[in-house]
Each structure stands twice: as C-alpha cells, then as structure tokens.
Amino acid sequence: MMVRMKFIKTGPVKFIGHLDIMRFFQKAVRRAGLDVEYSQGFNPHQVMSFASPLGVGLTSEGEYLDVSFNSLPDKQVLLQKLNDAMNEFIQVTDMVVLNEGAKNAMASVAAADYLVSVKDGYEFFGIEEFQKKFTAFMAQENITILKKSKKSEKETDIRPFIYFFAFTDIEFLGEDSAKKSLAESYDNGVKVYLKLSSGSVDNLKPELVMEAFCEYAGIPYNEFAFQMHRFELYGEAKDRNYIPLSEVGYEA
Amino acid sequence: MNKLVLSDEILMTVDKPARYIGNETNMVVKDTKAVDIRFCMCFPDVYEIGMSHLGIQILYDMFNRREDTYCERVYSPWPDLDKIMREKNIPLFALESQAPIKDFDFLGITLQYEMCYTNVLQVLDLSGIPLLAKDRTEEDPFVLGGGPCAYNPEPLADFFDFFYIGEGETVYNQLLDIYKEHKRQGGSRKEYLEQIAEIEGIYVPSFYDVTYKEDGTIKSFTKNNSHAKDKIKKQVEMKLENTYYPKKPLVPYIKATQDRVVLEIQRGCIRGCRFCQAGMVYRPVRERSMDFLKEYAIEMLRATGHEEISLSSLSSSDFSGLQELVYFLIEECNRQKVNISLPSLRIDAFALDVMNKVQDVRKSSLTFAPEAGTQRLRDVINKGLTEENILSGAMEAFNGGWNRVKLYFMLGLPTETEEDIEGIAVLSDKIAREYYTIPKDQRNGKVGITASTSFFVPKPFTPFQWSRMDTTEEYLNKQHFLRAKFNEQLNKKSIKYNWHEAELSVLEGVFARGDRRTAKALLAAYKEGCLFDSWTEFFVNEKWVKAFADTAIDINFYTSRDREEDEILPWDFIDAGISKAFLLREYKNAREEKVTPNCKMACSHCGAMEFGGGICYLPRNEEVSAL
Known about the structure:
By secondary structure, chain A is of the alpha+beta class. Chain A folds into two domains: 2-107, Pseudouridine synthase I, catalytic domain, N-terminal subdomain (Alpha-Beta Plaits, 2-Layer Sandwich); 108-243, no CATH class. Helix content of chain A is 23%, strand content 30%. Chain A has helices spanning 18-32, 75-84, 105-108, 127-138, 169-173, 206-217; strands at 2-9, 48-50, 59-68, 90-97, 109-118, 144-148, 153-157, 162-166, 191-197, 226-236, 242-244. Chain B folds into three domains: 8-233, Cobalamin-binding domain (Rossmann fold, 3-Layer(aba) Sandwich), CATH 3.40.50; 260-359 and 597-627, 2-Layer Sandwich (Transcription Regulator spoIIAA); 365-517 and 553-575, Transcription Regulator spoIIAA (2-Layer Sandwich). In chain B, the strands form six sheets. Chain B has a six-stranded mixed sheet. Chain A: Residues 3-206 form the DUF2344 domain.
C-alpha cells in the first residue's frame, strides 16, 4: 500500500540536494527495518517518489514523499522507527495511507506556501519600507519577467501565479493554524509569506518572485540575501480550494 | 547542533557543501567540555575519498568508545573553498563540533599515498598550525602521522611531531592515557614526546639526527635523546579475529567513493609479490573469525542502510572461509535486497558460480592483474599467475557469458626488456584470440579487452627497495613502444590501451624513498601552489620541477639510481617485521628469476613469525593451489 509521508528539512540538511535526500531516505528506511516494496528486476529499488524537489539552501516543514509498503506497522510505531533512523534535521511529522488509485504526490502538487526572510547582514529596506514596496509590487496588474530556458527567453507574467501574500503568520496561516515555525528567524525581521503556484504546469519559485521584486524596487538582486522556507504543499480540489497533500487518502 | 563555521553564502557558493557540514548518520556527538582529550582525524584528500577509508572508521569508533576522548574528522577543503578560507582568514575546522583544528590536542593524519603530501601542508596551513614541528608551541596540537606512507616518514619528518608505525589498534590507548596524565600535570610538549618515544611503534623524528656522505647517501642516523628507541617496531594487531571494528560506520549524505559496507576479512597477503609494499608490511596474514564477520556484516548493514557490501582484503581468494562467508552473504543479501561486490577474486569454478549468483545479466567485466607481459618477468616479480591461468580463467568466463576483460600491467619493472613490454600486447591479443575460438553462434557479441599500464614505483620494505626506477623519458618511450605493439596485434580493434601519467609516478618515486632533505622540495612545491596532486586536473608538473630546481634537490638521485646493498636507507630505523636479509634474498631471487612459494605453501622465513601468530603458525596447506 502507498503511504504518503510529510517531512521536515532544516538546519545543515538544507545544503543536501534532492538526489542525496532520496538516497538518505532509502538508507533510513533500511535502517528502520521497514517492510517496503521493492521493484522487480535485477537491481531492485524501493518504490518511492517525492512530491517536489526542494532547491539546495531552502528549508521546509512541508515536504512529501510516497512510499509503497508490503505491510504496515501502527502509525506511531512507524514514525518512531523511521525518525530514530534519521536525525533531528530531517524527520517525518505525519503520514497517511493513500486510497487505491490516488494521484501520486508529484502529480498532485498545485501550490506551495513559502516564507521569504531577509538574512541578517543583507538588509536593503527596513520592515516598513519593505512592506510598502512589496504591497505596491503586488498591486501591479502584471509582473512580467524574462523566463530563460535552455533554448529561448520568453516573457512571462507571473502575477497570476502569486495567489496570496502576507507579512505575518496569523494573516497568512490564520489564527488557528499559526504555530511555531521551523523557519530560521532573523533579527532584521523583514519577511513575506507567499502562496505560489507549484507543480508541473505553472511552477513559480520564490526566488523568481524576489528577483522580480528587486528589479521593481530598483535594487540589485542578491541570491544569497534571502532564506526561503517552504511551509506546505497543496493539491488542488475545486476552484482554487487548496488542500494540503497530507489531507488526502485516509489515516492508517 | 553546533553552528556551522561556513556562512550560508559560502556553502551555497562552493561545490558539494555537504562536504563541510558534518551531521552524517552515525556521527558521534559529545560535549567537548566533558572530555579530556580532543583528537581530530584527518584524511588529506577530498571528503568523498576520505570518508571511504576504512582505517579512519575503525579508529573513529575505537577512540570514541573512550568516554574521556572525542574523536572528530577533517578532510582537505576542495580548491574552491581553500581559496575562500585563505581570502577570509577562516581557520580549518572539524566537522563534528565545527571547532578550529588548532584547539585540538591531536591532529592525526593518515598517509595513504605520497601525492597527498601537499594536502598535508594545506591542512596544517589552513588550521594555523606552524608547518614545521620545531616552530610549534604549547598552544598547538600534536601532529601525528600513520598509515602505509609512514613506513618511510622521512620526507615528512620536519612537519610531524611523531609518527605511529603500523596498525592503530595496539598502542593508541597508551598514547592517550599518557596524554591525559601529562595534560593534568601540565608537562611540556617535549616531555610528552619523550614519554611516548618509549612506546613501541612511536617515532619522534626530532629525537634523531641524520648526516650525509659526500655522494648524498646517508652517513649516519643516530638518536639525540635518551628516551628514543634505536629501532621503531611496527605495530601489529595479533587478535584480529575479534578486535575493534565499527558496528555503526558513518554514512555520508553525498555519495562517497565507497558507498557501501566494507567488511575487512583479513590483513596481510600470502603471495609475496616483490613490488607490493602492502604484501610485505602487513605480514603476517591474519584472518578474522567467521562468527565475527557474519555478525558484523548483518549489524553494519542494519546500522548504515547501505545497499551494498564489499569484502576487503589484499587477496580475498586466499581467505580460508571465503566460500562459507560468501554463500552466507549471498543468502542474507538476497533477503535484504543488498548487492555484494567481490574484488580480487581468482577465477575458478567457485568464483564463476558466485559471479553468476551476484551479478546481473549485463555481466560486469572480468579483471586480471598479470602485472607483467611475460612469464620471465612475472617470475622476477613473483607474481604467481601464469599465462595458462589467465587464458583458461578467461575462457571459463567467456563460456559463462562474459565478454569484457580488464588487464592491469606495470611498465618499468626491474630487468624489463622490449620483449617483456611487447608481451603485454601479445598477452592481451591472446585473450581475444581465445574468445574467438568459440563458435560464432555461441558467442556473446564482440570481446572487449582493456589493458592498462601504470609505472612501477619501488617502495620501501619491498625486495625492490634498492632498485632503480625509470626516468620520465624512459617511461614515455616504453609507452610509445607498447602502443605501437598494440597496433600490430590481430585483434587490435578489440583492445583498448590506457596508461598513467609518468611525471606523477616519478614524484611518487621521490617521496616513496626520499630522505629528510626532500621536505624542502615538498614545501617549495606547496608554496608554488601545488595541491591535490593526485587529481589530474590540479597536477602541475612545472611547479614541481621548479620546486626541485629551486631547492637544488636532484630527482634522479632518489629515483633512477641503483642503491648499494649496504647503503643506509632512510627507513632502515623501522623494524617492519620482515628482515633485511629476507628482502635481499628476494632481491637476488628476482634477478635470478626464481619464484618464492607463498605463505600457505612454505615458510620463506621473512621474519614475521616473531609476531607470534597468524599464518606463520598454521599447518602448511598440502593442496597447493595453481594460482
């Protein structure tokens, strides 16, 4: 049966690339002694797929992977076994068993929540000025950027793919769900929360938004100035009704 | 968690930041304030290479079993980070605590190959530790070296406080116990060195003086401190069957060169190939026990989650329990969906059966190391592999569906003639011809043979330690000659010829048998910017040539000169367990093309019997195997 796991990626592990995270999970599953399914053939490998590769340098508390099990222990036992085989920076926080025929994690992704913080030492605006400028930036009808691909450059309007933004967690996540985040925090306090289109169709990275913002604000874009933190990945229900990837299927 | 030394910006700028962040699976975490001794273990090459080294995994585990000691790790920063650290004055740090190396009590550097010596200087330099041992103060860590290159530590003598000669399992605990007491009492640096100079296997170079004759050879090697020993005795772990071995090896985030569980089945080698230093200095052959190996294999697979296990030894085929162990592992691995990799297996019915069971249909290639092209030269080097062995082994494998063969040879072996060189091409061709004797409809496509040559580098404590080594020019001529001979072969289209760089081998030759004076050239080369010399993309021979010229050190004196049998060799003060008389006898046998039987067939009285165990005390095997 296919199990969807939600996991965090924090601390120094943010420097580990996606392929190595996959290898890490494969080894962790072996260390935990879980009864997972292996593919057939001469080089059997674990049947495992990730929702959305997280760029190197980003932290997250909303990553997902699907793993196929032959037999499943109790949820708490499974979480405990797996987390004991990993470290404090990369932990599974939740899991659900998927219904037969459910779309896999990667195909399901439609949107993602991010927190973008300015790192200390890279400040360019105070909190107030940043919020004013960013609000004005978002008030534009179009935000046109030059999207470079291997073959061509083409102009794209990214405004439709920025679904929502806010400057505080309460405003962004709502009073109930606002909780202590695992995101790294910085003294300068300049930050913005973004809900962006994600997935295979219109994938918008937060880096691209900040690059466009810097251009709009007339300041040079420094790729090292921002810490991006992913909160959650969503699948789309109907009419832009986003549901977290963990809220599909049923509880184990 | 300890805050990372390198900023996000630096880590996002350099290649593979995972090399510098620690926190790998099975990393040991201790409170640095709660321990008495802080030991930093260094492999002076890039992280992925260093993390693959078994010796460090063993010592890391052994040291950290001590409650009073915290052993951490450091590797050479890659040139991209090296540059940034110099520009920004960032001191080199250990992966675990991220603390500066300079704060440690010990910096232990493993010396696995000569061409990492500039990296040794890099590690000291970036740590802010004076390069020369004599310039160090009470504030600096003790810098010690070990590993195979420590069998001739002299080119590095100026840079190290002391060397540990031999296997690490024996006297490290003694070194640490004495240090703890020394630290408590507040003794001086010299006092500690004097205390440990009395331990077997410990060499403190500053306690010895070397003088030279007019012709450049050593006149005398004498101690200048009464605590120093006359001879430094190689350390050997004689309880290998069940001694220290890590049950939870470190597992890096990024793929290391050895991305697998490594199970060391035995130490030493019965073969006695005359060019092979490992085969001489790791004597006597000692096996680990079957119960130990089975237990540790399962335990390590469980603790690492690795998808592969490999057996480590100089010659796995000679391990007495190989069949039992391999069949046990095949069963266990099939159940756990783990691969087994078996290096250096002699091709026989058992090997083919095993290969059929563990390898997939694509059939990986078959490897032979004849080392020399003719039987005459193979007799000179005591490589007991005959042409018939190779051809029949290859044929068995061909019949089993294999069609790719890798062959390893050396150029420049003592007494080598043009016929021997040509023999490399001829033997490669014969293997191809053998393949084509199979009827066409039964063949598995074309045969592919890859023949590689490296250049012979004479090493200390081998019968060829007196031998002349070819010059770069001679090497290149031989290589061209051989390339032409390959082109004359019938099956030249089925044979691919690869060769190594000659300049690097010559430098390796200098430091392998160099004396203390070569340190000047090494230091000069480092100052010229030489680093990561074993990496083709960073090796700049011109800088080395300049360094030798500037320091007036003659490369040819160390390489292309036959040494007299009574010459004092720089490493003569080490007792490696094999007697000089034996090495001389073997040197003579080599020139007379006389083969010496292996340790299972008969004892050749090399001297290793004095260690009181291992193969020396086992009944001789009556069934002498053909290979």
